[in-house]
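Dissemination and training. As part of the outreach component of the grant, students in the summer workshop were shown how a complex can be specified as a set of sequence lines and then modelled as a single object. The example used during the hands-on session is reproduced here so that future cohorts can follow it. Participants entered these lines:
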Amino acid sequence: MAEKKSTRIAYGEALAKLGGVNDKVLVCDADLAHATMTASFADKYPDRFYNFGIAESNMTTASAAMAQCGYTVFCSTFAVFGAGRAFEQVRNAVCYSKANVKLGCSHAGPSCGEDGGSHQAVEDISLMRTLPNMTVLVPADATEMEKAVFAAAKFEGPVYIRTGRLPTDICTAEDTPFEIGKANVLRDGKDVAIIACGIMVPQALLAAEALAQKGVSARVIDMHTIKPLDEAAVLAAAGECKAIVTAEEHSIIGGLGSAVAEVLAEHQQGVPFERVGIKDRFGQSGKPPVLFEAYGLTDKFVVEACERVLARK
Amino acid sequence: MDQKLQQKARQYRRDVLDMLYACQSGHPGGSLSCIEILQALYENVMRYDAANPKWPERDRLVLSKGHGCPALYAILADKGFFPKEELKNLRQYGSMLQGHPDMKKCPGVDASTGSLGQGTSWAVGYALIGKRPGHNFNVYCVTGDGESQEGMVWESAMAAAHYHLDNLTVLLDDNGLQIDGTNDQVMSLGDICAKYAAFGWETITVDGHNVDEITEAVKRPRVGKPRFICCRTVKGKGVSFMENQVGWHGKPMNQEQYEAAIRELEV
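and obtained this result:
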């Protein structure tokens, strides 16, 4: 795998690039421009950057109004504030009016580390997924993040983009396609399918490699779009691999695992199934690797989950 | 005040009562209190084109107290944004006239409001764009006194002053009442003008049922700041038994009450 890079840095760089080719792009932040990395855009296009101060509710609703004037507005803060504190503004201003606002929210999950549980959003995907008109993207790495930003800008309507603070492995290639709502199979396999999003995608690939050493053929699906979910990819995995494990840096309640379970249940796909993710707990302070171990978010936990579903086949 | 405008205001009030009686729900008190504020804006101030409601350079009106929308709907219909027959469909399934304004459904509605406290932020967003190169429009926001208890209102007040939004005017429908009682019983606003002034706004107080006074205040030369106009109003204005009555915030009228109210408003 190539060098490590955080998706938040890729997000900021992509915005700066996008600003050069699309003068209708405006960026808003709530005093976190150097953390969400919107500063990369602000430095280049200060006249198109709006800092709202530490006031996420006002920023979110104002962004909806700005978008209704024909602009594409990227609105950034930490996930816990963008999806959590301003949830009702996302609902009633952004989604209800179908405003062309892209919420780029960083520091999601325990990978934001030392800041602790108050800042580690473990429920943002779940919250955003329930909103009508909302599209939810969780790119796997920095390379995919740039594509996601450009795809979101092209797409008319609200989009939630989850970004992370921690530099993580690059697991997709420049020429890997990115289409909203279309999962990428990064590694094919026939015994078990691992459906992952965000920084759990590289972990899933490590797990697949470890399983291969044990003679198990694992498919790895990068489910970068949680909504609309690529149901065909899920059903193909169920039909062909007949065992599924989901992996996400998020609560197992309401996120990717839940979305996949809904599809399986509605299509009578009673295949052995497990969700790797945070087990209905808040995060806490610590170095990310220590937290990943404590919260069950490493390749080892993915391997174990795969072995359990294989045993139930 | 102009006789014709007064007659028109009575007509709007009758429209409001017709709408609310037909759907047996909705908010009479706060709809009747903001008639002249909206009338002044649509009659004397705002640039708009009812035939082209999405004209990009139109002035924007945000009815932050979205529950007062029957007043807005009456005026939008009168100004030709949609046929007056639509008014009878208020709050009905499939109607463009939702219980709270929906900009996706109703021509002339610039912000989907009803969730109190959000309108001033809608207005700030619009005003920021109105100040951008290539744009030149003004933004008017009608707020309620009760909703000024929302913290978000003050986030937007701070932002408006910070960005010197002198294309923004917030008009407070200061009728003094909210659902559970008077503002002072529920949560005192204190000196609301002093609060806005402390946030860096120009403040003016007017009789909120006098179209001329409201118009004059809105049209004064700008002083480089966002403008706050405290419009002193009477909740339920125009219907004697509703005036200043907390109970008429959101109560349906029976036939007898409806007929009595209409009689009071006949030209």
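The longest helix of chain B spans residues 3-23. Students were then asked to discuss how this feature might be tested experimentally.
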